[in-house]
Amino acid sequence: MKKIIYTALMAASLFTFSGCESYLDVNTNPNGPDQMVMPHLYMSPILTEMALGIQFDGRYLGKYTANWHGQAADITWDRHGYAPNSDAAGQIWRSTYYTSGLNLRDMIRKAEEEKKWDFVAIGYALQAFNWQLTTDYHGEIIMSQAFDPTKSAFEYDSQEKVYAEVKRLAELSLSYFEKHKAEPHPNSRLAEGDLMFDGNVAKWEKFTYGILAINAHHLSNKPNYNPAKVIEYVDKSLASNADDATIRFTGSVSGDANFWGPMRGNLISPNVRQSRFIVGLLDGTNPVLRDANVDPVTGVAVPNIKDPVFTAQHLKDPRLPVMLAPAADGEYRGVGFGGVAEYTVTAQRPYNLYGTTSDAGATNATAQGKYLFQNAARFPVMTYAQMQFIKAEAAYKSGAKAVALDAYKKGVNAHMDFVRAYASTAERTVFDQRRAAYMANTKLVPATAANLTLSHIMLQKYVAQWAWGFVETWSDLRRYHYTGNESGGSYDEIDNDASDNVFRGFALPTDAGLQFYSTNGGKPAYRVRPRYNSEYVWNIEALRSIGGLETNYHTKEMWFSSPQ
């Protein structure tokens, strides 16, 4: 990594005059290196960059997780590969080390000087979030030496060490929230820069508990995994959709618009289409989330409850038309590894994620967009529904199935509410019809804890995190080794028995008769390589020490998902 030195603008030369007027003797250069801006002025750009990092890289990671696939066949990311000599998929790294980086540290330091303990607490929470996100994405990362100005080469820390530091920082953050309650600043100005919670400190505290929940829950394959602690953290985290951590965008001009809005056009290149997997989860064709009965004579699935729109078909998830884009014929379809060419009839090809065109698109400042793909749409980084599914899985694993079912129902209902907010007035009538039927259907929402499966929980969590929670979804997939059963499966081999997969219906390239990326050695991706233009250009020896120069480094399993 290049030497990270953050400097303010300075005068070209400094001069000392012994005979100056007195006002020159006391004047301070407001742009000098000894001056830091007020804490609230750091907040907006830090939060915006946090969202940008996830969105930018989500375009690529979303192919690993089958949120979407290429409009045309993609032999790189859809095949679990990477782009050599490129910064593609390197924005989270850039956000953590550069655009947040020392700015976040300066915000904390300035807040400490001014006794603005709310900013100090939030600063440590954001640093914990950044480290968690970055290590879950890249594996071993630079942490201990990251911001040391005396160094020009930086050693990597183990993921185990990073996980411990995330916990320490989150707990430190909580201690400063307590200090803020005891010594509130009379003019903190937090609300002026807070694009996430508009200055609500209580919500920031809940967000911090959410970080702890994620940090503890990712270790579910470890012998010392503690589901009770995960549930404790979740219960102290987001309490309803009103607590959702979402970052605000104005959407009036390109500079303040959501990165994924049609005004920015960033989903046009790389051009993606919704996957067959997500469509299956929402249209009732996935074997876990479908209401169909089987005709005892023909063995053919028949509708248990007919859909109010597609009246000859089984019930559709009410979220389907709000989240996803139809094809020209009005039906909802997704693509696999072959892109839209899988449909020879043009009218059957799904529109892009904005819901505007079939095979091409252009930046459009006036298009409405859909769901999270709108110019002024808020971007989530943590939600109440997500927390409830984490609780449901932890409870399920501990044997507390009744607790798991309660959290499952709360998670599904919460995400229904989340999506309904994006539905038009006209769409809400059918949405509510479908929702009532969906929630009453015991195949989709089991009536008893005995009928709840881990697949129910994980697939609903996948839906709730679609198009924003890429790293958490990928962490889930990796914990179950993509195609594993409830025991978790094995990193060393791909489970070819699809009937008991936790993520039923999820397909790796090999499931479609294709090969993984040429350097993968027959394995799926388990990490993203560090950012090329900092690490592979400037920090080669440190990379060599962790195996980062190996062409299949991205297939190496991370510490968090391994049982050791």
Automatic annotation (TrEMBL):
Source organism, top-level taxon: Bacteria
UniProt keywords, alphabetically: Lipoprotein, Signal
InterPro entries, per database record: SusD-like_2, TPR-like_helical_dom_sf
Organism the protein comes from: Pontibacter cellulosilyticus
Pfam annotation, one family: SusD-like_2
Protein name: SusD/RagB family nutrient-binding outer membrane lipoprotein
Signal sequence residues: 1-18
Keyword Signal included in the entry's annotation: yes
